[in-house]
Amino acid sequence: MYQCINVPVYQLLLHCYTGQLLNYNYKFMNFNTKVIHGGQHHESSTGAVNVPVFLTSTFAQKSPGVHSGYEYSRAANPTRQALEDSLASIENGARGLAFGSGLAAIDCVLKLLNPGDEVIAVDDLYGGTYRMFTRLFEKYQLKFTFISFDDASKISEVITDKTKLIWLETPTNPLMKLVDIKVVADIAKGKDILVAVDNTFATPYIQRPLDLGADIVMHSATKYLGGHSDVIAGALIAKDAELGEKLHFIQFASGGILGPHDSYLVLRGIKTLALRMQRHSYNGYEIAKYLETHPAVDKVIYPGLESHPQYELAKSQMKEAGGMVSFTFKSGKKEDAIRFLERLKVFTLAESLGGVESLANHPALMTHASIPAENRAELGITDDLVRLSVGIEDKEDLIADLERAFS
Asked: Which of 39, 70, 141, 381 is close enough to 85 for a disulfide, judged by CB 3.0 to 4.6 Å?
């Protein structure tokens, strides 16, 4: 139901019919409506309900420098623009940007910085992010400090006058730690420090970091936003227009854009995001409860369980607990984890997450292999740790598959 204040119903319906929803209207929509209508309009020349895939590199101009707003697809493409407008809408941001991968999006954020600047990052990071920070950008004289964000006071202790960025994941990958976004944003406030949040695991259906004080939201849109394991993409959403323009310049100058066909696939995925996340979260909770009672399982890590140390933060910051579940074996043996993963049939042993199908992963050997073994051990990424991306299948089939693999 629309929540448009002082907008006559007939006017709203007229704008919907003509495909000319006013910008201020969609800001008051509920999320299920935003994923379909937010920032979108029908194609003007034909009235097509879905944005066409504009497979063109360049655009005709009426006179030198006189054009329709599109010159060259690296700068802007109508299909990518539709996706970027949708991203801004669902995250309540001023500007959305779509990239060729999640790492390309992170690369763009780091290019806001200058040699000598310092970054504080949560210690439990996706392996690709850690690899980029330490093996690519450290040689350009950026300094990275990795700490646990469990105690917010630790952040203040490592902030210096050179700190320019705080980088969060919440929930983290793969240990499902939570970070209080509002507390971190309050610490950075007034210090000329940007707060960026990787919101891939939660999605804007579950939490919206910009509303909690963050400056930038990042997504690996390959995951839940696309939702069907058929595209590689990344996204940034900036809280204010000035920051969004700076990020767009880097995107344009560096060229890490998302192509029009992939933009269409992510935009199509977003339209069902709310429905899918409801199912992912329901199945995730049911799988977590099942694992918690299994005799072979030592520890289950899932924000929706009362056993999670940050359960109360999850209830206050997240709408649902999501579809990501990690667990360890009572034996503590890597061999048991590998044997379990090899026996799965409905769950697919594969990299990535967030698709409609259920996936299983061994972080130490797969997604986090680029993190040195001693660092993994210190964080708690043990060799018997398994990470599940619970899909939208029937829970009975998923549980039966896990039971067969255990036995």
From this structure: 39
Which residues constitute the domain of residue 37? 1-49
Would residue 164 show up in a list of annotated catalytic residues for this protein? no
The verdict on 167 and 245 lying in the same domain is yes
Are 254 and 164 in the same domain? yes
Out of 85, 107, 124, 198, pick the active-site residue.
Answer: 198
Residue 399 lies in a domain: yes
> Which residue out of 2, 70, 74, 282 is catalytically annotated?
74
**Candidates 80, 95, 223, 276; catalytic one:** 223
Instruction: Please state the rounded mean pLDDT for residues 371-400.
Output: 95
CATH code of residue 262:
3.40.640.10
C-beta neighbour count of 14 within 10 angstroms: 11
Structure confidence by residue, pLDDT tens digits, 217-257: 999 999 999 999 999 999 999 999 999 999 999 999 999 99
Instruction: Decide if 62 is inside a domain.
Output: no
For residue range 81-114, what is the model confidence (pLDDT) as tens digits?
A: 999 999 999 999 999 999 999 999 999 999 999 9
Contact 303, 324 (CB under 8 A): no
**pLDDT attached to residue 14:** 32
Question: Does some domain include residue 68?
Answer: no
DSSP secondary structure string for all residues of 282-300: HHHHHHHHHHHT-TTEEEE
Q: Indicate whether 296 pLDDT > 70.
A: yes
- Give domain status of residue 40, yes or no: yes
Claim to verify: residue 280 and residue 204 sit in the same structural domain: no
Q: Please check whether residues 85 and 7 belong to one and the same domain.
A: no
Helix (H, G, I), strand (E, B) or coil at 261: helix
- Which residue out of 126, 224, 285, 302 is catalytically annotated? 126
**Annotated catalytic residue 198:** yes
Dihedral over alpha carbons 281, 302, 231, 372 (to 10 degrees): 180
Most confident of 62-66, 142-146, 375-379: 142-146
Active site residue 74: yes
Catalytic residue check, 223: yes
